[in-house]
Structure formats: C-alpha cells, structure tokens
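We treat protein structure as text, and this decision shapes the records that our systems exchange. The tokens are whole numbers drawn from a learned vocabulary of local backbone shapes. Below, we set out a record of this kind in full and without editing:
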Amino acid sequence: MGKRIAIIGGGFAGTEAARRLSRRGQEVHLFDPRPAFEFLPLLPDLLGGRYSRESVTSAYSFLAEKYGFTFHQVRVSSVDPRQWRFFAEGVRFDFDYLLICPGGTTDFHGNKTAAEKSYTVRSTTGIEDLLAAFHSEKPDSVVLVGGGYTGLETASQLRRRARKTDREPEILVIEKGETILAGVTPGARSYLEHQLQKLGISILTSTTLSGFSEDGVRLSNGRSLDRALVIWNAGVSFPRELWAQEVDLDPAGRVRVDQYGRIGERSWAAGDIAHFGEGDTGLPMASYLAIQQGNSAAGNILLHIQGKPLRPYRPRYYGYLVPLASGYGIGRIAGVNLKGRLPVLIHHAAGILRTFGPGRRIRLMKELLRGGIGMGAND
C-alpha cells in the first residue's frame, strides 16, 4: 500500500498531481468544495455561448474513477502544513503528505459593496448568475472592472452573447492604470484596442468604480450609469485564514515555497497559491504553469517517498494569449509575437487538447465547428 497523500484543491495543479500519484500506486485523496473540475481558460467562451457547461467541466467522481483516487466534496477550513493535517467541516484529517493548491478567489480589495453587487467569471456558477441577471435585468450598460487579459476577453464574449438577444448594452472596460495590458508591446496593445472598438467596447483608463447607486454605478471620471451591471476582474486573492500555523505569505496571500515547491518537510504547494522565487509577485498565474507545478510536486513527493534527492521546479514559459470573441486576438508564443486569427485558433486547440478524455474533446470540436471562432451569424 502506498503513502496516504491529501491534495487540497482540484484545479489544474491538484488534478494533474492526483493523476500522476494515483498511477504510481499511492493512496490519493482529493478535496474540493466543487463537484466538478472547471476548465478556467474556456469559461469566457461559456459566457459567449460558444461552449456548453458540460463541455468545460468534468465531474470529480468521473475523474476519481478514471484515475484511481478518492474524491471528497468538502471545503477545507484550516491547514497545518508542518504536521500534515487539516480540518474540513469540523473533521480533522491526518496524512503522510500534503499538496496544497486551492487556487484563488476574486479580489475585491476590501470593497464589500462591490463584492455583494458585482458578478464574476471565475466559475460556471458565477457565469450562470451573470447571464441570469443580464437576461432578467436587461441592463443599459455593463461595466467590467479590470483591463487585464480576462477582463478584455470577457467583454468581447459578453458582446457575442448580447448579439444573440434583442438588445445590446453599452460595454465599458475600466482600468485604474494608465493603459490596459501593461505587459504587452504597444503594437499588440494598439491592435487589440482596435479590435475591441470594432466590437463597440469602450476602454476607460485611469478610471475606477467610485460607488454604486440603487440600480447603477458612479465612475471616478464623474460619469453615472443607470441600469448597469458590474463584472469584477480586478485581481485574485488567497485566503490568509487557511493557515493554522504561520507561513511566509506574499502581499497577495500566495505562500512562498522553496525551489522544490515545499512549505514543510512533507508539505507542498502548487498552482496559483504557490509563490516561487524572490520578490513580491512570483510567477504568472497560468494554467500551463499550474500543470507543470502539479507534475513537479507529484514527482518530488514520489522521490521523497523513495528517499531520493528532490528536483527543483524549473518553469517552462510558453507565453500568453488574449483571444477575443470576434475571432481575432494577440499573443506571444515561444518568443514570437502573434496577432489576428492564429492566437484564437491556438487558444481553442490548447483547450481541446488539455481537456479530459476523447469524448469531451469531440464535443468541444463539434461545438466550435458549429459556432465558429468569430461572432457567429452576425460576425
């Protein structure tokens, strides 16, 4: 019988580690409050109506049976990484090894009103709540807070969804910085801004959300918008109260790990919650890096079990993609700048290839062929 290994969080890192460790004969238990794995990079496409919920999710019960681990649908409330134990719903669990990778939540920066009145797109439930409000409230305006990759992609997908209805609201992306996508080249940024303008999406930089009215919002530039919905994409945070013992956290709440991904002798962290390297920012939060870290953590746990030297985690950077619902986008892959159709095609191809099982891949391909990579009938 193998060692008892608990994995807290069933995102890309946790699921990758569970697959590898189970195949190597370990007793793996995966803990997550959700019933299904959600393919985060394709969730904006769910908002736009290109893919169905069934295509971008996989039940953990199915994955557990397929790969041989045990799934527990519970929320972990407290972790003690130095004693390899944690609490979930008042029950204490003790294991030989821990891998902690619960992912993050939307960061409202302490704005309780925004947390109550805004919608998010980090889960299928959040998207379904947003769509229900969009169809029932019929807003005149939709304000997306945050001009990063997710905010811009979400804005374009919302436009695609709106064109399937009898009304198209004003869509605005507000960014507190002086520019959107501060990390990309000026040429790529200009190209994307032009594509967003063609979709009728307004970009307001150096602008914040200053407050909420009864059914609308006020912007820092003095403008008031009635009958407005708000989608919040301004950052990700991690629960500091998760830790039963003091650990070294960065300003965002990510836990600092050593070069092997460890917090303690038999405790690892991986995915978005893990801070590798020096400084305050750590590595980018990307699904492919989470998969790498989950695989690295699983490999090092196996090496530790065998009494062999651990291997440092070496990130392999592939680049980034910003695909818009119009079928145009920008990206940088293997040091090559991309724009036009190709970044969008790569986005869909990567999503289809990374999903679980041939049946789901076929379903995704059928839905993509049916809807195309652009805006559909009104493209």
User: Anything to note?
Assistant: The CA atoms of residues 197 and 203 lie 8 Å apart. DSSP finds ten helices and 25 strands in the chain. The chain has a mean pLDDT of 93. Residues 287-305 form the longest helix (19 residues).
